[in-house]
Amino acid sequence: MHVCVGTRTFLCMKAHATRLRLKTAEFDTLARAVLGQQSDAKLAARLGVGATHYSQLRTGRRNPGSAFIAAVKTAMPNVPFEHIFEVVDGDGAAANRDPGTS
User: Which of 43, 48, 81, 94 is surrounded by the most beta carbons within 10 Å?
Assistant: First the structure.
């Protein structure tokens, strides 16, 4: 992000937007335990998304939307949200939401 006044740049820093990401390994384990062994295509259909969309969610190329999050929580109501999803910064690193930790 550049903050400019006239033709002079006073501040230059890389902007890092946070986003939500599916915790794929944890999701796979929990989904198998709660929903049973299913192919990715069947699980995607059960969660109301297409196979390509689901693949993109799993690889981090797409962010989970509200409909997908609601479908996951409906299918697995007793699984805590933070066991399935995580907040990450723009580079994909887990965002530290507690300023008291390093």
Answer: 43
For the chain, count helices (H), then strands (E).
Answer: 5, 4
- The model's pLDDT over 32-48, given as tens digits with 9 standing for 90+, comes to 898 888 899 999 999 99
Identify the domain containing residue 42 by its residue range: 18-88
Beta-carbon count within 10 A of 31 CB: 20
Instruction: List, for residues 17-32, the tens digit of each pLDDT value.
Output: 889 999 999 999 999 8
User: Could you identify the residue written with the tokens 């915790």?
Assistant: 23
Would residue 10 count as lying in a domain? Answer: no
CB-based contact 76:68 (threshold 8 Å): no
Tell me the angle at which helices 66-75 and 24-35 cross, rounded to the nearest 10 degrees. 40
